[in-house]
């Protein structure tokens, strides 16, 4: 079985506007093909291939004591070394 290796973990609480700005900047970096993640002196540079898998998932966990917790997860996935260009007609 393949072993998972945690490369980076970042967690913070921000305003909705700050989160929106972060996501817009992330979108630009994904479009350009390279994402650098930084927190507390840790840097991780990701070179992205032309094609990525994307998954969006929303879950709700009911907690009677303090209300439900809703999560929105966005997952991007690719195989390292996969630089295949999309098929096109000439």
Could you list some keywords that capture this structure?
alpha+beta; two-stranded antiparallel ribbon; 90 residues; 19% helix; two-stranded antiparallel sheet; 4 strands
Largest sheet: 2 strands, antiparallel
The helix/strand series, from N terminus to C terminus, equals HEEEE
Morphology call: extended
Roughly how much helix do the residues carry, as a percent range? 10-25%
* Number of alpha- plus pi-helical segments: 1
Q: Please tell me how large the radius of gyration is.
A: 17 Å
Structural class: alpha+beta
Strand order of the largest sheet: 1-2
* Termini separation: 42 Å
Count of strand segments:
4
Nearest-integer average pLDDT: 90
Which band does the percent of strand residues land in?
A: 25-35%
Given as residue ranges, the uncertain stretches (5+ residues, pLDDT < 50) are none
Explain what this protein looks like in three dimensions:
With 90 residues, this protein is α+β, with helices and mostly antiparallel strands. The chain has a domain at 16-77. It is built from one helix and four strands, in the order αββββ. β3 (53-61) and β4 form a beta hairpin. The longest helix has 17 residues, at 16-32.
List the helices and strands and how they pair.
Elements: H1 16-32, E1 34-39, E2 42-47, E3 53-61, E4 69-77
Antiparallel strand pairs: 1-2, 3-4
Summarize, please.
The protein has one helix and four strands; from the N terminus they run αββββ.
């Amino acid at each position: 079985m393949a072993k998972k290796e945690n490369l980076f973990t970042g967690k913070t609480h921000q305003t909705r506007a700050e989160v929106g700005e972060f996501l817009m900047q992330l979108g630009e970096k994904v479009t350009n093909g390279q994402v650098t993640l930084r927190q507390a002196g840790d840097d991780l540079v990701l070179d992205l291939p032309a094609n990525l898998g994307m998954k969006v998932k929303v879950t709700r966990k009911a907690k009677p004591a303090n209300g439900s917790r809703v999560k929105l997860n966005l997952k991007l996935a690719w195989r390292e070394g996969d630089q295949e260009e999309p098929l096109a007609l000439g």
